[in-house]
Amino acid sequence: MTHSATCCLLGAPIGTGAGVPGCDTGPAALRAARLGAALARSGRLVTDLGDAAPAPLAAAHHANPAIRNLAETAAWIRGLGAAARAAGEKAALPVFLGGDHSLSAATVPAMAARAAARGRPFFVLWLDAHPDLHTLGSTGSGNLHGTPAAYFTGEADFAPFPPLPARVRPENICMMGIRSVDGAEEARLAASGIGLHRMEALHRDGVEAPLEAFLGRVADAGGDLHVSFDIDFLDPAIAPAVGTTVPGGATLLQADAIAAMLGDSGLVTSLDLVELNPTLDPFGRSAALFADLAGAMLRRRETLSRTGS
Fold first, then answer.
1. Measured between alpha carbons, how far is residue 201 from residues 14, 91, 206, 245, 284 in Å?
2. What residues are paired with 230 via a beta bridge?
3. Domains located in the chain, CATH noted
4. Is residue 190 exposed (0-12), middle (13-18) or buried (19+ Cβ within 10 Å)?
5. pTM assigned to the model
6. Could you tell me how far CA 193 lies from the centroid of its own chain?
7. Which DSSP string do the residues of 206-251 spell out, in sequence order?
């Protein structure tokens, strides 16, 4: 099997960035939901690298008194960033199992640096109810899972976080499903150049056209595509295992369409699966759905029809 067909799993049991405990058990739940088998059905050789660990804790301070677990989250970003870079060297397609969305402050820059080393442009598809565009100074909740997109696009005010190995150009980001935005984030979005598709518009006009246009840009540029998939992109009626529920999310039909389009494109080069909180869904249906959708994002339907799968 060629290197291009290799896939690896890397757990990121981070819970320090979220306001509700339980995200740190997400990687184990995804493994129990047979995520590896779902990804293997795409025809890839899947290797599980186990879980990353935080770097040694260092003192970290910020003037914003609301911030919670700054030192612990910064340590996770340093440790996971190094592990993500190593995963990107071992496999063509790393899949990062969260864990709260602060993990993307490590994984996205690591994958952007990999793309830069290859001489390839880098794109991000952000499937989420929230844009996560707070800086350390603007967050009111103090929960650092609301900051990764501001960090990896190069916003200031992130001094305790490690230096960015590579900045993501905002115009190369497509955010879909957004439906909960704070005032500071609205202003940042308006000035950023990020492609924004709010959930209300997707319900009205469909998910296919904006995603097709974005995937066309990635293909035309010959770029690497990182998908950061927060389970709260989905409506909580079908995926209740999330501590930041926002009604009106993507339906199963919409999620299936997005996953199929991503799979058929063959463009995905790395993937985050974040904010799964198994303690809020004891029957495990959210984890099972998450694993199935992730598998579909990496699986071309034409391949399945040829193999009879």
1. 32, 36, 7, 19, 30
2. 274
3. 3-302 (3.40.800.10)
4. exposed
5. 0.96
6. 20
7. -SHHHHHHHHHHHHHHT-EEEEEEEGGGB-TTT----SS--SS-B-
Residue 154, Cβ neighbours under 10 Å: how many?
13
Residue 238: both structure tokens together: 């079908």
Residue 170 DSSP code: G
DSSP 8-state symbol, 47: E
| Paired tokens of 143 | 């929960």
Q: How far apart are CA 269 and CA 89, in angstroms?
A: 12
Higher pLDDT pick, 308 / 257? 257
How many Å separate Cα 176 from the centre of its chain? 12
Burial class (CB in 10 A: 0-12, 13-18, 19+), 31: middle
Could you give phi then psi for residue 300, rounded to 5 degrees?
Answer: -80, 135
The residues pairing with 48 across neighbouring beta strands, listed in sequence order, are 9
Placement of tokens 């989905």 in the chain: 234
Q: For residue 64, give Cα distances in angstroms to 19, 67, 120, 143, 147.
A: 16, 6, 37, 12, 14
Exposure b/e, 103-126, CB count within 10 A at least 16 = b: bbbbbbbbbbbbbeeeeebbbbbb
pLDDT tens per residue across span 259-269: 999 999 999 99
d(CA 231, CA 288): 12
Q: Using CA atoms, how far apart are residues 97 and 117, in angstroms rounded to an integer?
A: 24
CA proximity to 95, closest of 222, 274, 289, 243: 274
The confidence band for 14, taking pLDDT boundaries of 50, 70 and 90, is very high
Distance from first CA to last CA of the chain, Å, rounded?
Answer: 19
Q: Which residues contact 95 (CB under 8 A, 6 or more apart)?
A: 7, 8, 9, 10, 35, 39, 270, 271, 273, 294
Take residue 216 and report the two structure tokens written for it.
Answer: 């066309």
Give alpha helix (H) positions in the chain.
26-32, 35-40, 70-90, 104-118, 148-152, 183-192, 199-205, 208-221, 252-265, 285-297, 301-307
